[in-house]
Specification:
Blueprint: H1 5-9, H2 12-19, E1 30-31, E2 35-38, E3 41-45, H3 58-71, H4 86-98, E4 103-107, H5 110-121, E5 126-131, H6 136-144, E6 148-152, H7 157-165, E7 172-178, H8 190-199, E8 203-207, H9 221-225, E9 233-237, E10 247-251, H10 253-262, H11 264-267, H12 274-289, H13 292-311, E11 322-326, H14 330-343, E12 345-346, E13 348-350, E14 361-365, H15 372-389
Parallel strand pairs: 3-12, 5-6, 5-7, 7-8, 8-9
Antiparallel strand pairs: 1-2, 2-3, 4-10, 9-10, 11-14, 13-14
Length: about 400
């Protein structure tokens, strides 16, 4: 048996390309935040994680440029050896303060945060308890560890308790949930999860990649619920509201120190360049000083939810700038995506296994920098395409 046989037999992407419905790996010619250009066509971007619109903020761009002038383009080594800068430690200190924790640790990507943190913390006598809608990086981090994995139905607190009851008391337990779920745009029910964690002696980690900068006046989902002190670990990325690349984990000093010396994805990866670090620092400063950005993006999302629902679209349980438009069928999802794309709106089609069968959707997301005119135009196009295709 040839190990490459599966590659030769894989034709799904090629088939979609032939049919004109392939929506992935589209090379953009220009990006100006709320608008992008593809093969000469301008589109309103409603598929980015640039929630606060800071990737084009003059302060963020200047910080990155200045850092390149001072430090060059790369650290050329891991944090563990030669790749640590005083700039990294400054960002770690400020992030820890921002999320009300003793310390934090920067990784090169958000994916690496979850891979390194979860696998470092879990041994053979531990159990990882995951929400079924948790991000793939959480699942993969759990798989890399030597602990047993248990899953509970999405935000089903009764099922979570049954899972916790089934775990022997002498085993270590870590519950890991998204703060904001990346496809549905809904929140983890932290006020209900935390009492169970305490009752069954479990620790809790929140992946707030999509919540940081947006929920809790920018401080994240734990802050929104007022439970920062009860959540043990808070994780987030720089590739969304922080307008950069990288990620961090924050928690008690001893826990962060352990992860720092055990996380393979940290020790064996090059550190983020100074430019990315400086950009994230600048973005953090803006998030602290301009909470109205979070208010603006949430107001835009609320308008989109209300208007899309009024038209007849299904937007699920979203309460954040991620607003899913649930179609429920692969081909109709691709057809709707293409109709929107051709009329000038960029969204992300999502099918199984990223979402369950019957929940295929268009993942739309919004920025604080979208203008009212752009949002009105997006709604107009959604209505036109939805009617034409019989989705509404």
């Amino acid at each position: 048996m040839d190990i490459f046989e599966k590659c030769y037999q894989y034709t799904q992407a090629k088939d979609l390309i032939k049919e004109g419905f392939y929506p992935y790996f589209l090379p953009l010619d220009e990006s100006e935040g709320t608008e992008v250009k593809f093969e000469g066509q301008r589109l309103i971007m409603c598929g980015s994680n640039n929630y606060l619109g800071l990737t084009t903020h003059p302060k963020v761009k200047k910080a990155a440029k200045d850092a390149i002038e001072r430090y060059g383009t790369s650290c050329t080594g891991s944090r563990f050896l030669n790749g640590s800068l005083a700039l990294h430690e400054r960002l770690e200190k400020e992030l820890a303060e921002f999320v009300s924790k003793e310390n934090s640790l920067i990784f090169s990507t958000g994916m690496q945060v979850n891979l390194g943190t979860i696998s470092a913390l879990t041994g053979r006598s531990d159990v990882i308890i995951l929400d079924k809608d948790d991000h793939a990086s959480i699942v993969d981090g759990a798989r890399l560890g030597y602990g047993k994995i248990e899953r509970f139905r999405h935000n089903d607190i009764e099922h979570l308790e049954k899972v916790l009851q089934s775990i022997p008391e002498n085993l270590g337990k870590l519950i890991v949930v998204d703060g904001v779920f990346s496809m549905g745009g809904d929140l983890a029910d932290l006020p209900a999860i935390l009492p169970l964690a305490k009752k069954y002696s479990a620790r809790i980690m929140v992946d707030d990649a999509h919540g940081m900068g947006v929920t809790g006046k920018g401080h994240g989902t734990a802050a929104q619920f007022g439970v920062e002190d009860e959540v043990d670990l808070i994780m987030s990325t720089f590739s969304k509201s922080f307008a950069s690349l990288g990620g961090f984990i924050a928690g008690d000093e001893d826990i962060i120190d352990y992860i720092k010396h055990k996380a393979r994805s940290l020790i064996f990866s090059a550190s983020i360049p100074a430019a990315n670090t400086a950009a994230a620092l600048a973005a953090l400063d803006i998030i602290r000083k301009e909470p109205e950005l979070a208010d603006r993006v949430n107001a835009i999302a609320e308008k989109m939810r209300e208007e899309l629902k009024r038209m007849g679209f299904n937007v699920g349980e979203s309460v954040t700038p991620i607003v899913p438009v649930i179609i429920g069928d692969d081909m109709r999802t691709f057809q709707t995506w293409k109709g929107l794309f051709e009329k000038g709106v960029f969204v992300n089609p999502v099918i199984s296994p990223a979402v369950p069968q019957g929940m295929q959707l268009l993942r739309t997301s919004y920025m604080a920098t979208h203008t009212n005119e752009q949002i009105d135009r997006v709604l107009e196009i959604f209505h036109s395409v939805g009617k034409t295709l019989g989705v509404i």
